[in-house]
Amino acid sequence: MTPQVEAAIELLRNAELDTDRGMPEALFWTVSALIPVPNVDLLIVNGRGELLLSWRKDDFYGESWHIPGGCMHFNESFGHCIQETAKREIHTEVDYDEEAVAVRNVIRGLHYSQRHPRERGHNVAMLFRCRLPEGFEIDNGQLCESDNGYLKWFAKLPEDFMQIQHIYDDILEPWRI
Predict the structure, then answer these.
(1) Pick from 21, 53, 63, 119: CA 20 to 30 A from residue 164's CA?
(2) What is the full DSSP assignment across 23-34?
């Protein structure tokens, strides 16, 4: 181990980071370049059989529709992560099945157009079937369809569905174009 690595380890250990509620974004990205990051994705279907998707626009996955989801924090249960993700992404709590519908090893790999190509390169994704509260209606507030977090129901997967989420194609077969 180099002296620089030893110093970095010691610095992080002594930083007294409380990551139970998340961590600074740059630190999260750095950690994500070192180890796979677990995340939950929320499979939500309405009474008409439509799938709830959210618009996403970011440096790692581009602009596309995706299944709402979020990364787990240290010491967080699946249930807590599902609820926190639902509140943040859908603005409500959900009922959910305890067992994941799917667990996938998601390797995006190196992304050389980024300054640090390994960041956000590997996730362990768990897809949970969730149910919205009775009478739920999407409230996009002031968001436009091209804004991060805009929610929309889909009878079929849109052409601009997030490429990396095709790992769930076997589960998403009913919504395939």
Answers:
(1) 21
(2) --HHHHHHHHTT
Q: What is the pLDDT of residues 122-176, one digit of tens each?
A: 899 999 999 999 999 999 999 999 999 999 999 999 999 999 999 999 999 999 9
| Cα-trace Rg, the chain | 18
pLDDT digits (tens, 9 = 90+) for 80-113: 999 999 999 999 999 999 999 999 999 887 777 7
The sign of the torsion formed by the CA atoms of 28, 54, 52, 121 equals negative
Please calculate the CA angle 127-169-162 and round it to the nearest 5 degrees.
80
Domain ranges of the chain: 3-134+144-175
Task: Give the residue from 168, 157, 91, 159 showing the smallest Cα distance to 129.
Answer: 168
Stated pTM of the model: 0.89
Q: SS3 for 40-94, per residue?
A: EEEEEECCCCCEEEEEEEECCCEEEEECCEEECCCCCCHHHHHHHHHHHHCCCCC
Say which amino acid occupies 101: V
Assign domain 3-134+144-175 to a CATH class: alpha beta
Classified as helix, coil or strand, 152 is: strand
Distance CA 33, CA 27 (A): 10
